[in-house]
Amino acid sequence: MSAPPPIPDLPQPPSGRFAGGVHYYPVRIYFEDTDTGGIVYHANYLRFMERARSDMLRLMNIDQRGSIESGEGVYTVARIAIDYRMPAYLDDDLIVISHVLEVGGATCRMDQRVMRGNDILTNGEVTVAFVSSTGRPKRQPKPWVALFNRIAQGESIDS
Question: Model pTM greater than 0.85?
Answer without folding.
Answer: yes
